[in-house]
Amino acid sequence: MVETRKVQVTGGSTYTVSIPKDWATDNGVSAGSEVAFYPEGDSLFMTPRTGEERTEGTLDIGDLDGEELIRAVMTMYVSGFDIIALESTRITTDQRRTIRQATQSLVGLEVLEETRDRVVIRDLLDSSELSINNAVTRMRLIALSMLEDAVRALVDLDADLARDVIQRDDDVDRLWMVVSRIFRATLRSPRAAEELGVTREVCFDYQSAARQLERIADHATKIAHLSLEFEEPVPDDVAAALDELHDDASAVTDAAMDALFLDESDESTRRANEARESVQGIDGHARSIDELLRELDPTRAQLLGLVVDSLSRSADYGGNIAETALQKAAPTP
Known about the structure:
This protein is α+β, with helices and mostly antiparallel strands. It has helices at 21-26, 66-79, 93-104, 132-156, 159-188, 190-196, 200-227, 236-261, 265-293, 298-329, and strands at 8-10, 14-16, 35-40, 43-48, 56-60, 83-87, 109-115, 118-123.
């Protein structure tokens, strides 16, 4: 239910407005309490100020183990808890090992306390020191280098390079978790957005782009896995076509990311539209490679067809980033 209040003038120069009593009671606000105001465009957000800025969450891990336990820790991390207490009647050795594995896969986490029935994890990073822009930029560099090296590993039958690409996917996943954590923090608190120095809408745009970059990294990993199944070199004409398709797909993502980071709306719109339009040409290029694959034996043709599909999908994800850049550059209602 929306409540309205009239703005009044006190002392001849100070504007005042009352706050709903129910809201004040629910949030521990009373006479003498401090509240903080955060301006955002034509809106003004007010939140209670508390002495404890770090949030603690408790999770009963019960019989959780393996991947389920890892996902549970990751979910608590992305949800924004600074202190995560994992509890059970008795935490097993395997559960402790899994918790440490999950902790090491996330940026800034460290095991703070361990007892028979409780493991406490704490985020050591100061949210004000995090930069969603830097995290997304780093994701861009890693994801596109993974895609390039995955194709090179396939063409050169370089198993070591392929395994290196697969390992780098963990770095992208860690950054994706950081971006998701930052974004969710800005949804909960205007203070988080103020500390970042960007609006919540821009945080949403960055988070949307990061999701596409994470998918590109997944397809690079898929290509790297496929390359390990090849024992004979890829035919020269197919290898050249794959290199060209990769170059086009990476160019789409690069152009889209450049458009996303631009502050000048007209130039951002121009670059984003160019990136979107180039995706259609890539689809035609992929179909021409499929024609080349028909001359190969069915097993190799199927594997290479999966590589072509991953490169085409990577271009599509670049097109999605271009769409996000267009939305970011559009006038704000």
